[in-house]
Structure to design on (119 residues):
């Protein structure tokens, strides 16, 4: 089989005179072994490893479930990374094999949901 995973994204900004639109795009990917999962982790204000359990993520959709505070996801300890804004802020990315993902909340512990699909 082929193209078992579909990821869709798009965006629109309307702010006064600023109007910007990114058309919705869907991309299909192959999955060699049928594995997927989700984890929900409380990420504190000290940097910590994001635990995928027995999962071997490839494609990851990370969502911040906290309504007030943001979370940073990092690909190496102490580095800059992806900021998940509060109230459903999300990011879609591919996590290479062997890479450890780290998280740190800004001012208070945040619950982060990570859905993953191996490639």
């Amino acid at each position: 089989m082929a193209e078992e995973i579909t990821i869709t994204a798009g965006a629109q900004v309307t702010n006064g005179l600023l109007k910007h639109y990114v058309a919705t795009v869907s991309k299909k990917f192959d999955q060699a072994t049928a594995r997927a999962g989700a984890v929900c982790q409380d990420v504190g204000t000290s940097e910590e490893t994001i635990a995928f359990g027995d999962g071997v993520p490839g494609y990851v959709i990370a969502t911040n479930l906290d309504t007030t505070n943001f979370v940073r996801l990092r690909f190496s300890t102490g580095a800059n990374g992806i900021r998940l804004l509060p109230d459903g802020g999300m990011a879609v990315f591919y996590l290479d094999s062997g890479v450890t993902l780290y998280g740190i909340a800004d001012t208070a512990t945040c619950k982060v949901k990570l859905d993953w699909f191996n490639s």
Notes: DSSP finds no helices and ten strands in the chain.
